[in-house]
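Colleagues,

Please find the record for the three-part complex below.
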Amino acid sequence: MIKRHPEPLLWMLFSAGGVVSALLLPILVLLFGLAFPLGWIAPPSHDHLRAVVGHPLSRLVVFGLVVLSLFHWAHRFRHTLYDGLQIKHLNELVAILCYGSALAVSAVAAVLLWWPDAIR
Amino acid sequence: MLPTDIGSHATPHAYTAYHPRWLRQPVSTYWWVQKRSYFAFILRELSCLFVAWFVVYLLTLVRAINEGEAAYQSFLTFSARTSVLLLNLVGFLFIVYHAVTFFDAAPQALVVHVGRKRLPSGLVGAAHYLGWMVVSTVVAWVLLGAR
Amino acid sequence: MADRIRLRVGRYRPEMESELVYQEYEVSFDKEWVVLDGLNYIKDRIDGTLSYRWSCRMGVCGSCGMTVNGEPKLTCATFLSDYAPGPVTVTPLRNFPVIRDLVVDLGDFMRKLVRVKPWIVREVERPLADGEYLQTPDELDEYKQFSMCINCMLCYAACPIYGLDPKFIGPAAIALAQRYNLDNRDEGAEERMEVLSEHEGIWGCTFVGECTKVCPKHVDPAGAIQRYKLDAALASIKSYFMPRGV
């Protein structure tokens, strides 16, 4: 019997998050982080963006991007603290903080995407 | 003259009558600056911090879009602040580094068989980069499509 | 025509000191000489007390692994002329306890190797009268790369994870497990998975990739580990839904 521990599932989330963030973040950051603020390209109108974000498919894509990227960060950052800074004695606390904040921000994202009126 | 206390750090010799003490060289906390490849590895790992930052950044954008035209304009102004631009520039470089290292590593992890033949690893890598270009084009087209 | 080069060798003599001490030797060498030739020159002509391991001097036995100018190398495959004018620093292989001079203890790896069962495991052994197991070239190619491992331990010396946490099972052990998992004559994948899917099995690896970089036989242990992670993760998820086995 394979010993039960969460590493395999967390690793799969990390991998999926790595792929999704690698595919989607660069273009989004290039546009919203550099091109639009620097004036290289005119930013899209608010109406257009509201329509894009309002589409059920985009909401799923954004949510998927958020959740997977956050778990990618959580897993990688936790391991970096463990190996890089060698704070092994705080291992469990670090794990709870990392995955916990990933869950928390994912919950916030869900609310923002599907119940926007709840946060006004 | 042989020491009888093998546990003490004060003894000058590490030899006991029946078993010489092995030398265990500890790993420095700064092991990751000692070699270029280790440093590159840690940079790759730290890129995840910017992944998380951009998730928060994009969620801020989504919220601004929800709140209306004024909030959206205010987000655009915020994104044009020098400090934010600098952060996003550095972050952009880091997430591109993340993407490149991830896609370059993919062929090592992903061995694809078609029937009984293995796909050449170069093809697996190229497929990832192609996918990256396609996704980026689609996203840009959706966002910039209609004004 | 012989050049001269200085070798700065790490000595550890437990009866004399409790830490690594450097001793310098000047060695005449020809352009074909490797670091091992330099060490043999020292032992033969300058200082017979120097201790180190070597055997085949052609890169197949895995005995002569040491740290040369900070990098884990097979000293029989590392040319002195590449380091001219020197000095060349030779120290024991990292991440293993040093017994004496350049000799390290590899017991930790030996114990881990046995745990992954690096042999063909069959549920029922075929009788000799049935003849040999036939294998096509394609079936051989599936695992051949991982069979090239000579247990030289350069990958363990290069792996920062192993250095920080000696409980980590390590690159070569996993690559050798994969050599058998991917061999179609073998039926032991499930048994090996119990060992490999422990917390300090494959899940200790963060894909630094240094192991593959230093491997003198191009085994690519990092690739073996990442490939296995996917298999193990899927098996683990399956076991949640089908706890009593497939």
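Residues 51 and 123 of chain B are 27 Å apart (CA to CA).

Comments are welcome before we finalize the supplementary table.
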